[in-house]
Amino acid sequence: MDWPVTYRRKVRYSDTDAQGIVFNGNYARYFDDTLTDFFDAVGYEFGEVEVVLARLEIDFRSPARLGETLVTGARVESFGNTSFVVRLTTWEEASGRVVAEGRQIQVTVDGKDFRPVPVPPELKAAVEAVQGEIGD
Predict the structure, then answer these.
(1) Taking Cα atoms as reference points, which of 4, 100, 107 lies closest to residue 50?
(2) Rounded to an integer, what distance in angstroms lies between the CA atom of residue 96 and that of residue 107?
(3) pLDDT exceeds 80 at position 135
């Protein structure tokens, strides 16, 4: 898959659990850090409209260990009326071994009361400028 944005992180001791592998909850943080970089790359300025995570799915494929470097790629898969789906994959950099795959549903909300609002056309255009046209 073509990843328009990637986030790179060396696994630190604080990322691991008693088994010596990355604690599963940390993948949510890696995904969130990747999405932050994604929106930086897109250059969309949030203001009156914000995004909130409505759903997170993670499938664990293989363990990541202390000292390995992980790369997470992100791509918007589709847009709905008030939401969009982000596909993410994390792999070990040296081998390319996939360690986790995930999917997020982000909802666009009014920045004041957090009620769902339509995805701004400017956001869709900014994403498509970075990764190409997205089918609905």
Answers:
(1) 107
(2) 31
(3) no
Q: Where are the domains of the chain?
A: 5-131
Structure-block tokens of residue 75: 């791509």
Instruction: Classify domain 5-131 by CATH number.
Output: 3.10.129.10
Structure-block tokens of residue 87: 């596909």
**pTM across the whole model:** 0.92
Reported as a single tens digit per residue, the pLDDT across 71-94 is 999 999 999 999 999 999 999 999
Backbone φ, ψ for residue 27 (5° rounding): -65, -30
Tell me the C-alpha distance between 5 and 19, whole Å.
Answer: 31
Q: Which amino acid is at 78?
A: S
With a pLDDT cut of 70, the percent of the chain lying above it is 98
- 79: Cα separation from own chain's centroid: 15
Give the residue-averaged pLDDT of 37-50. Answer: 87
SS3 track for 49-99? EEEEEEEEEEEECCCCECCCEEEEEEEEEEECCCEEEEEEEEEECCCCCEE
